[in-house]
Design goal:
Layout: H1 3-12, E1 19-27, E2 32-40, H2 73-93, H3 100-123, H4 141-150, H5 157-175, H6 182-204, H7 217-224, E3 231-234, E4 237-240, H8 243-250, E5 255-258, E6 261-264, H9 275-280, E7 317-319
Antiparallel strand pairs: 1-2, 3-4, 5-6, 5-7
Helix pairs in contact: 2-3, 3-4, 3-5, 3-6, 5-6, 7-8
């Protein structure tokens, strides 16, 4: 479907009620993925029929500047990565959403290609281009892989195999028929996402997690649980690969019951004496960021009743805040053996 056709469909579906419309179009050799997203409200966009031109207070037609979307190389990569995670989450949620694997794979390969090009650009900006003399075309992902290895970037054979498998899938999605094992797709996808995490940290600096949208954190955590490596970098700390899911789950336990009275749990950075420490980095024990709730049992969490250390204060907890079945535990003492 052409971009013009996508835009026409988008216009035909517009209404007076504000709504968000997102489209994806593929061009040429599918190395370019074009996104457009607009908030629809009366009078926007002007190209859609049924809306009058925008007028000023004197009743004169307003001149509007062209609308643009500008993304840097890394911003483009992060955008595709987040859209890929969203599509993969839909794909695994139900069999009828299996077609979402097409977009999930396509966008993940696109994000990886851009991350690899960013690393080449940092080595020398000319390495991004196919020809030094003709800078109109950037290198393919296969060429980028070879150039990265030529400048000393170590890429494990297993990761190279996964990348080449995904490149083949991407090309078939864009140009030909697709016959894909969903189990294999899920496995390769997780492997590629693990490579993206490690590559970003070692070659670009910083956690990839810092660029994942909050609505994708659970999908990210689920993928981390099947990483080959036992430890992952999360919130700037090395933690066991199952820990991100534990931290996210802890955010659902908002209260603790002490002596039959509920108290709101205190997020990291609110505790007495920890305000400045929280500004500098995550909790040293559970990796919670400032404003996040601690994982139950963290030695930094403060009791909301007495302001002492939660795991050692004398307050009697009568309901464990981490008990899924919400069964009352009479006179539960966290200091007892």
């Amino acid at each position: 479907m052409t971009l013009a056709r996508l835009f026409a469909v988008s216009c035909s579906q517009s209404s007076r009620r504000p709504r968000r419309s997102v489209g994806v179009a593929y061009f040429g050799d599918a190395t370019l993925v074009a996104y457009y997203a607009t908030w629809r409200s009366p009078g926007s966009p002007r190209a859609c029929a049924g809306y009058p031109p925008r007028m000023d207070s004197d009743g004169q037609k307003q001149e509007t500047s062209p609308r643009k979307l500008t993304l840097s190389l890394l911003e483009n990569a992060y955008d595709s990565l987040n859209d890929s995670l969203e599509s993969a989450d839909y794909a695994e949620a139900a069999d009828e959403q299996a077609r979402k694997w097409k977009l999930a794979i396509f966008l993940l390969v696109h994000a990886l290609e851009l991350l690899m090009k960013e690393r080449l650009r940092r080595e020398h900006h000319l390495l991004v281009f196919s020809s030094v003399d003709k800078r109109g075309h950037t290198v393919s992902m296969e060429v980028a892989l070879g150039r990265l290895q030529a400048v000393g970037v170590a890429i494990e054979p297993a990761d190279q195999a996964s990348i080449r498998t995904a490149i083949g899938w991407r090309d078939r999605i864009a140009h030909y028929e697709l016959d894909l094992s969903l189990d294999e797709a899920s496995k390769v996808y997780a492997g590629l996402f693990e490579f993206a995490h490690s590559f970003h940290r070692s070659e670009l600096g910083g956690d990839l997690h810092d660029h994942i949208r909050e609505e994708n954190w659970w999908k990210e955590a689920a993928l981390m649980e099947v990483f080959r490596e036992e430890f992952v970098s999360y919130n700037g700390m090395d933690v066991i690969k199952t820990w991100p899911a534990e931290l996210l789950a802890a955010q659902d336990f908002l209260d603790v019951e002490i002596e039959h009275q509920k108290y709101p749990r205190l997020p990291y950075g609110v505790e007495i004496g920890w305000e400045e420490v929280a500004e500098k980095g995550p909790c040293h024990d559970c990796s919670a960021r400032k404003g996040q709730l601690h994982v139950p049992g963290c030695d930094v969490e403060q009791c909301p009743r007495c302001q002492g250390q939660m795991i050692s204060c004398p307050c009697k907890v009568t309901e464990k805040f981490a008990d899924d079945e919400e069964q009352e535990v009479e006179e539960f003492d966290p200091t007892a053996d």
